[in-house]
C-alpha cells in the first residue's frame, strides 16, 4: 500500500472495504468468497475457503490466490519478501510487482491471478508464534519455544526458552531483538545486522559486496560467519575468516592446507592433532612430514609402518629406543627384528619375562646367546617353585647328549650360516630346521 493511512475492513462475510487516507474507496473489493480474516502489508491478504488471496490496494485487482490458510502474514520492509505462517508450516515467497504489472498490461491475468507474481523460496515445517522481518532476514519464535532466524532457505537458532516468548521488535541502534513473555517480562538478545546482511549477500552469491561488508562484522561474530560460510560450501573463505583454532584446523585439513594445519598442531601440541596431520601428510605422500607428526604424536604403530615401508634404518633404530622407553615392547621387538639385531630382540624377550621364547629365539637365530638365557630361565623356574621342571631343561654346551650338534651350530653362526639377512647359497642354513627340532625336544 502507498502509506500507513490505507486500511481495509471486513464489513461482512462477503464484503471488504478499502479506505485510502481514511476515505472509503468506491466500489469496494470483489472478494468472490466468504472472507474470514484480513492481512495487511504490501498487498491486502484475504483468507477464506481454504486459501489466501492477495489484492492490489490501488486497483483492487487479484494478484494471486494461494491454496494455504495462514494464521498470519508478514511482509518485509522492501515489499519483496513475504512469510505466510500456517498452523504447522510457514512459507517464504518473493513478490515481483513487475511480473504482476506486465501480466495485467498484457491481459494474462488468470482466475487465480498471476502465477509469476510470487516465487517460492522455501517452506519450513515449524509453527510461527510471532515473527518480524529485519532486512531480508525473517526472525521468529516458534511453538517449541525457540528464537530462530531465516536467511534464504537456512534457519539458525538464537536461543531456547522454557516458556513462550513474543517478539516486540528489533532496535538496530542496539543490535538487539526484544521479546516478552505473557507476564510482560522483557528479554533481549544480540543480533548483529551486519551479520544478517552478510549472510544474505552470500546466499545471493554477491561475494564482492559481501567482502566489502566483512570488515564491519564484530570480531566475536567471525566464527559464526565461518561456520555459515562452511555450510554454504565456501571453505576457503571460511578458513580466512575463522578465529577458532579448532575450526581452522578442521578447515585446513578439509582443504588439504597442511602448512596451516601443521602450524596449528604445533601451537596446540596435542597428540590427536599431530596424528591427524600425520595421516593427512601420509595421504599426500609427504613422508618426512608424516614421520615428524607421528613422532610428536607418539604414534609408534604408524611410525613402525612408515619406517619399515621406506626402509629407514635410522628411523627404526630411533623408534626402537622410543618404544622401549614407552614400554611398547612389541614395537621395539619388531624394530630390532627388522634391523636384524638378534641380541636386542633376545634382550627384550628376556626383560619382559618371555624366557622360554627368548631361549627358542636365540637358539634358532644366534646360538651363542642361548646359554645365559637358559640359565636365567632355569633360575626363574626355581624361584617360582618349579625346580622339577627346571631340572628337565638341558643346557647347551653342558648337556652334550641333548645337543650333539651344538658346536656345529656355533660354527655356522660364526660363518654367517644362520644370518637372517645373509642366507647361505641363497637358501636358509640346513641347521635351522635341526635347531627347531632340538628346541621342540627341549620343550618336551
Question: In terms of topology, how is this protein built?
Answer:
Blueprint: E1 7-12, E2 15-20, E3 23-24, E4 37-39, E5 44-48, E6 51-55, E7 62-66, E8 72-75, E9 81-85, E10 90-95, H1 97-105, E11 118-124, E12 128-134, E13 137-142, E14 146-151, E15 154-160, E16 166-171, E17 176-180, E18 186-190, H2 193-203, H3 207-213, H4 222-231, H5 235-241, H6 245-254, H7 258-268, H8 271-283, H9 287-297, H10 300-310, H11 313-326, H12 329-338, H13 342-351, H14 355-365, H15 370-383, H16 387-392, H17 406-414, H18 431-443
Helix pairs in contact: 2-3, 4-5, 5-6, 6-7, 7-8, 8-9, 9-10, 10-11, 10-12, 11-12, 12-13, 13-14, 14-15, 14-18
* Sheet of most strands: 4 strands, antiparallel
Number of strands: 18
Shape: rod-shaped
CATH topology of the domain at 7-197: Methylamine Dehydrogenase, Chain H
Q: Count of DSSP helices?
A: 18
CATH superfamily of the domain at 7-197: YVTN repeat-like/Quinoprotein amine dehydrogenase
| Radius of gyration using CA atoms only | 41 Å
Class by SSE composition: alpha+beta
Q: Which regions have little confidence, pLDDT < 50, spanning 5+ residues? A: 418-444
- The first-level CATH class name of the domain at 7-197: Mainly Beta
Strand order of the largest sheet: 4-5-6-7
What does this structure look like?
Helix 9 runs antiparallel to helix 10 (300-310). The chain has 18 helices and 18 strands. The longest helix is centred in the last third of the chain and has 14 residues, at 313-326. The strands form five sheets. The protein has a four-stranded antiparallel sheet with strand order 4-5-6-7, with no helix packed on it. Among the domains are: 7-197, Methylamine Dehydrogenase, Chain H; 342-443, no CATH class. Helices cover 42% and strands 22% of the residues. It is found in: Cytoplasmic vesicle, COPI-coated vesicle membrane; Golgi apparatus membrane. It comes from Fusarium oxysporum f. sp. cubense (strain race 4). Belongs to the WD repeat COPB2 family.
Amino acid at each position: 500500500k502507498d502509506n500507513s493511512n490505507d486500511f481495509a475492513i471486513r464489513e461482512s462475510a462477503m464484503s471488504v472495504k478499502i479506505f485510502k487516507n481514511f476515505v472509503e474507496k468506491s466500489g469496494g473489493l470483489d472478494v468472490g468468497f466468504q472472507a474470514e480474516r484480513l492481512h495487511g502489508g504490501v498487498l491486502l491478504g484475504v483468507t477464506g475457503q481454504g486459501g489466501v488471496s492477495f489484492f492490489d490496494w490501488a486497483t483492487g485487482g487479484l494478484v494471486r490466490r494461494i491454496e494455504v490458510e495462514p494464521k498470519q502474514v508478514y511482509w518485509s520492509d522492501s515489499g519483496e519478501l513475504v512469510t505466510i505462517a500456517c498452523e504447522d508450516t510457514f512459507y517464504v515467497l518473493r513478490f515481483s510487482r513487475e511480473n504482476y504489472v506486465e501480466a495485467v498490461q498484457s491481459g494474462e491475468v488468470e482466475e487465480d491471478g498471476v502465477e509469476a507474481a510470487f516465487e517460492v523460496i522455501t517452506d519450513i515445517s515449524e509453527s510461527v508464534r510471532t515473527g518480524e522481518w529485519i532486512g531480508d532476514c525473517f526472525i521468529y519464535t516458534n511453538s517449541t519455544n525457540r528464537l530462530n532466524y531465516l536467511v534464504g532457505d537456512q534457519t539458525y537458532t538464537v536461543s531456547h526458552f522454557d516458556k513462550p516468548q513474543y517478539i516486540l521488535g528489533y532496535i538496530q541502534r542496539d543490535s538487539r531483538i526484544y521479546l516478552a513473555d505473557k507476564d510482560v517480562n522483557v528479554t533481549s538478545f544480540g543480533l548483529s545486522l551486519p551479520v544478517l546482511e552478510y549472510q544474505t549477500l552470500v546466499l545471493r552469491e554477491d561475494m564482492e559486496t559481501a567482502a566489502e561488508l566483512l570488515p564491519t562484522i564484530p570480531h566475536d561474530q567471525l566464527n559464526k560467519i565461518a561456520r555459515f560460510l562452511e555450510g554454504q560450501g565456501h571453505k576457503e573463505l571460511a578458513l580466512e575468516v575463522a578465529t577458532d583454532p579448532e575450526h581452522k584446523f578442521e578447515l585446513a585439513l578439509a582443504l588439504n592446507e597442511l602448512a596451516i594445519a601443521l602450524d596449528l598442531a604445533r601451537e596446540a601440541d596435542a597428540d590427536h592433532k599431530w596424528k591427524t596431520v600425520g595421516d593427512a601428510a601420509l595421504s599426500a605422500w609427504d613422508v618426512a612430514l608424516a614421520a615428524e607428526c607421528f613422532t610428536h604424536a607418539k604414534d609408534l604403530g604408524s611410525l613402525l609402518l612408515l619406517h619399515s615401508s621406506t626402509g629407514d634404518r635410522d628411523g627404526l633404530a630411533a623408534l626402537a629406543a622410543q618404544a622401549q622407553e614407552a614400554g611398547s615392547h612389541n614395537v621395539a621387538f619388531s624394530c630390532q627384528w627388522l634391523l636384524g639385531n638378534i641380541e636386542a630382540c633376545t634382550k627384550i624377550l628376556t626383560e619382559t619375562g618371555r624366557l622360554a621364547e627368548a631361549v627358542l629365539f636365540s637358539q634358532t637365530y644366534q646360538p651363542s646367546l642361548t646359554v645365559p638365557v637358559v640359565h636365567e630361565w632355569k633360575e626363574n623356574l626355581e624361584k617360582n617353585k618349579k625346580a622339577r621342571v627346571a631340572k628337565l631343561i638341558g643346557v647347551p654346551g653342558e648337556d652334550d647328549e641333548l645337543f650333539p650338534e651344538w658346536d656345529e651350530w656355533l660354527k655356522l653362526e660364526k660363518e654367517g650360516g644362520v644370518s637372517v639377512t645373509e642366507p647361505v647359497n641363497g637358501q636358509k642354513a640346513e641347521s635351522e630346521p635341526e635347531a627347531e627340532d632340538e628346541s621342540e625336544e627341549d620343550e618336551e
